[in-house]
Write a structure and sequence with these properties.
Elements: E1 4-6, E2 12-15, E3 21-23, H1 26-40, H2 50-61, E4 68-74, E5 80-88, H3 98-108, E6 112-118, H4 128-142, E7 147-155, E8 158-161
Parallel strand pairs: 6-7
Antiparallel strand pairs: 1-2, 2-3, 4-5, 4-6, 7-8
Helix pairs in contact: 3-4
């Protein structure tokens, strides 16, 4: 039996510990959305378009009140090996360590990566620090033959792709 249910007006209900349903909170709705996107894009699924990647990452990173830096690790055919939220920060920054990203890419035998992080401020434009970090990560991963395909910033309903913006 599912822990989620919907009312006729499409409100989300969640089952509590006693088996009763009540209206879901905003955080529970976001968690349900993350569950749906995980079910829709299973490991091994190919990312066939930039819009699919942006929708996936938007669902995964939406609603956080702090920065989260995540990486999509992909095989040589750009199929998802694993989505990993690698670093958690504050409301306006997250410390990202290239060494840890490289270690995870090697552990997963990834051929390519897509970086992503959220801007809780709602402003999607990449900062100078975002651009510098992306260059450092790209360089570090390039040394072990892992291609950087994109870096996507999620800010509310907006998504900015470094590749589409000519920044990569």
């Amino acid at each position: 039996m599912s822990q989620f249910s919907f009312t006729t007006d499409c409100s989300l209900l969640v089952r509590d510990g006693q088996g009763r349903y009540r209206l879901a909170t905003a955080d529970q709705i976001l968690e349900a959305a993350r569950h749906v996107i995980d079910t829709k894009i299973m490991n091994g699924a190919p990312f066939t378009s930039p819009d699919l990647v942006k929708d996936y990452l938007g669902a995964k990173l939406a609603g956080y009140e702090h920065e989260v830096f995540a990486v999509l690790f992909l095989d040589s055919r750009h199929r998802l090996i694993k989505y990993v939220e690698m670093f958690r920060g504050t409301i306006d920054s997250a410390s990202v360590h290239p060494r840890e990203v490289v270690k995870e890419a090697l552990k997963l035998n990834a051929a390519a990566v897509i970086f992503s992080h959220n801007h809780p401020s709602g402003h999607p434009e990449p900062s100078t620090a975002d651009r510098t970090l992306t260059g450092r990560l790209r360089e570090a991963l390039g040394l072990v033959d892992v291609r950087t395909l994109d870096h996507i910033i999620v800010a509310g309903h907006d998504r900015v792709s470094f590749a589409e913006s000519g920044l990569l």
